[in-house]
């Protein structure tokens, strides 16, 4: 996965941040075998970082296999975040005389 880094606000600081950063994500079950090899392989490239996936479970796949939604399953609540209207009726407009 390549993630572009935005340019810095002050270019005169001459930061060593590259234009892109590549993350090589290793699954946890394969970390013992692959992580040391990948770190050694990418040791010369500053724009590549090897990391181990630390997620315990995939949140999106939790409900995907069921095919139907259950009433006892906690679901995300979507709220209306717009400002509440002032209760009551509007006053009549003044007439120009």
Condensed summary:
This protein is α+β, with helices and mostly antiparallel strands. It has one helix spanning about 30-40; strands at about 1-5, 20-25, 50.
Structure characterization notes:
The chain is of the alpha+beta class. It has a domain at 2-8 and 15-54. Helix content is 11%, strand content 15%. A three-stranded mixed β-sheet has the order 1-2-3. β2, α1 and β3 (48-52) form a beta-alpha-beta unit. It is elongated and about 85 Å long. The mean pLDDT is 76.
Estimate the helix proportion, in percent.
Answer: 10-25%
Trace the largest sheet across and list its strands.
1-2-3
Quaternary organization = single chain
| Cα-based radius of gyration, to the nearest Å | 27 Å
Biggest pleated-sheet summary:
3 strands, mixed
> Helix and strand string, N-terminal first?
EEHE
Features:
97 residues; alpha+beta; 3 strands; 15% strand; elongated
Outline the secondary-structure elements.
Blueprint (H helix, E strand, L loop, with lengths): L1 E3 L15 E7 L4 H11 L6 E5 L45
Parallel strand pairs: 2-3
Antiparallel strand pairs: 1-2
